[in-house]
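During the first year of the project, the team set up a workflow for recording each protein of interest as an amino acid sequence followed immediately by a discrete structure-token representation. This format lets reviewers and collaborators read both layers of information side by side without switching files. As required by the reporting guidelines, we include two representative entries from the current panel. The first entry is reproduced here exactly as it appears in our internal archive.
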Amino acid sequence: MDMKVLQNLSYGLYTIGTLKYGRKVGCVVNTVFQVSADPALICISMNKDNFTHDCIKEEGRFSVSILSEDTDPAIIRAFGFQSSEKNDKYDGFKYDYVDKMPVMVQDISGYLICEVVSFTDAATHSLILAKVTNSGFVGKHKPMTYDYYHKVIKGKAPKNAPTYVEEEVKKEEAPKAEGKVSYYCDVCGYVYEGDITKEPDDYKCPLCHMDKSHFVKVEEEPVEENVSYYCDVCGYVYEGDITKEPDDYVCPLCGVDKSHFIKSEEKSVAKEEVKKEEPKTEDAGVSYYCDVCGYVYEGDITKEPDDYVCPLCAVDKSHFIKVEKEEAVKEEEEPKTEDAGVSYYCDVCGYVYEGDITKEPDDYECPLCHVDKSHFIKQ
């Protein structure tokens, strides 16, 4: 039986908070689901060995903080690979109390305050049925899926997670060394820069507190110089050999698989050298192109519902411009601007900002690939 099939089930990522004699405790779980709407009931799955498990039993209440793709991965490591029995997992992170329950408040999608209805035995875990007594949004953040956690953050499942599958860490999955000595923790992935053998015997991982026997030396591998690939859909440049990525690797910008990546012919290809094609259309057809990312919609986009969004960059349909039959859309190698105007282009995805970007606030982000404004170059 191939247990990896279970990894195709869908999950999220959440911190569960409660109290122990007035002291805040918590852990990470990946299984929270709604059972009914009226009354609002949810169920969570939690390992019986978790310190938080018995604390919830005693307290009778708990909070659920819905983690987002913007959540600091350090929160996941702290809540997933340490025990609240000996550690204050909330230390160093922003939190608040809602109805006297601890809730994370930085870069999360929302929270739930719950009252326990029942505990159901499920082998190594308990299914905790609870009534939602309060809830709220915390900003507009996209909830993190377990798939995102594994593929983008490169996170591992804690041993107490219901989805944990014991397996050896493959060499190709280990961090790569670049001319220096380093070790990584085989439990949480923390990287120690330097020679860990010189640390005292009681040294522990600062994230998950495992002893140094869990640290594996990162073997140095030869790196092919100046190899890069670019995505033929959005122009994103992957620096390195993309063939070493797993088969399910996707472009972090537009989400297409790695079959869309083309090796750059030159030994050194600057990101701004990747040609960006403007949409073209045949005289016989009607089409529209997105003025943000260049995606071409074949057909009459006005017939789409008002909430239609570009499948590539997710802007609404007001950004789509009809391609006129007599209009010859030119191919450009780099964003260009008139001498009389000022413009900047993003060195990651090629998006052109018309105007003086220095006047934007410091937290301005590219609307296409979301990098900060330090990536914009004046033309």
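The second entry, processed by the same pipeline in the following quarter, appears below.
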Amino acid sequence: MALLSRFIVAAFALAATVQGAPQELGQPGQPSSDPCARIGGKKWVAPSEVRACFTSVRVNETVKANILDVINKTLNFHTSTNYQIRAPQPFTSDVRVNLPTELERIKRQFYRSEYDFHVDLSRTLKRTNDGHAAWTFACYDSLFVNYVPTPLSLLTSPNGTQNVHISPEAFNVSSAEFPDQMDVWQNALPGRLNGQLETVGVDVLYGKPANTLTQI
């Protein structure tokens, strides 16, 4: 159990160092007080740096009003808006959001950044649990992508028990896809696991070869 506890701590330490990679790469920028300029053109940046960039953009009230106006007009064609205000049984606990009221709240609310406005709008529409009602903003949703070197899998042991583990193939996949980033992830591991990312997915977690487990 002590070994497993140390492993769990190691997994969280790795998660804290997840890197963001911009999908379009430019030339490295010059040092700047602008948080977006500081990460411009870089292949790997810390999530905290990406957030600093995103939250540095102030809300343009004209753009905000236009977005809400378009969404309100679009919802006039969304037949389930009234249903979602108070869904009948057995969905009363799953769907209960008054979109017109929520959009009016968002219209009046002050946001420190455009990113905060985007997050509120996105989460509000997600509360409908309706795949046809969603808000995405490419400036925030697809500019950077997060990668975790320790993906999780549900594994079944020979006796039929199932548990969530780091995928046995994680190290090989990460090494092949992100060879220039492995040293960062390796060095993020604490104590005697430092530099031993390959053992995290097999020896440290299972204490046995990965081929004794079946991935499902």
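For the second entry, the following points were noted during internal review. The radius of gyration is 22 Å. The beta strands are 19-22, 144-147, 152-156, 162-166, 214-215. Both points are flagged for discussion at the upcoming steering committee meeting.
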